[in-house]
Amino acid sequence: MSHPTRRSLLAGGALAVGAGALARPALAQERIEWTMVTSWPKNLPGPGMTAERIATGIEAASGGRMRIKVRAAGELVPALAVFDAVAEGTAEMAHTASLFWAGKAAVAPIYTAAPFGLTPLEHITWVDHGGGQALWDRLYQPFGVKPFMAGNTGFQMGGWYTREINTLDDFRGLKIRMPGLGGEVARRLGATPVSLPPPEIVPALQAGTIDAAEFLGPWSDLAMGFWQVAEHYYWPGFHEPNGTGEGLVSLAAWEGLPEDLKAVVAHVLAVENIRGLGEAEWENGRALRQLTEEKGVTLHAYPEDLMEAAKTASEEVFDMLAEEGGVSAEIIESYRAARARLTPWSKVSQAALLSARG
Question: What global pTM score does this model have?
Fold first, then answer.
């Protein structure tokens, strides 16, 4: 058996000292603890589960250096107060949807979805490659908030109605839970849009204070129990052909992170954005069948005259937002340019295949 030489002992000692010097700062680093408030009931299929995975993902990817405590809607702040909670420093992070923030910036809902707008993949393409993220950052910067795409519930359904809608006239006069830009389209078609946080939708339908409600897709809708209070389920979700979840981070908290943890947060949010979309597509397929075959839900296509009127009203809403000027006008111009660029490709790829596939 060979014995260590003086040189090998010195080399080994140097390595040990070097490793110790590297390890000590890591051990001495404080664990960063953030609070994430959400707009969803705890573990709601879709966005509620996404919020939980973001928290566990950040802790795992950071090696435990960063821990996120998730607070569901109403636990710390109400569902529709999460933006203010992040802006004011009550929480460092939120998981929500931009469609709730039209009162802060009328164009904000476009980052969840726009009527007759981009599909989920097209929306991701615009934000990541078409300049959408830089404009989003500029929109929220005055509030001290940094936005990220953070999950996606995919295509939305048209909504749940307590009675059939056979013509545009049947739609007029309805009180419908439809936030975001779709709500403005509904208003222009003669309905009364109502913005309610998710936990209040079913009670409102049950009490008759609203006549209809849209939420997400079949998976989340099944979990919410809408089928128990409104039997008519409409498609397509022209008002929200996408379902981007929004991760909000306090700019002050963000700027206080070391660069490696910024990379961890951004990476986990991006991964969950794609994972959530795939999960939603898979589960929506199952849940739609369950709703129609087990729960007795009747599927209806929106009447053609309503769809044509909604398409016209949607472009009017885009024009209205563009007239605000500033960053709002830039966002609308960028969004419309992305739609014009991507539609011809989507038509000969996705749309053509789906039509042929039947």
Answer: 0.88
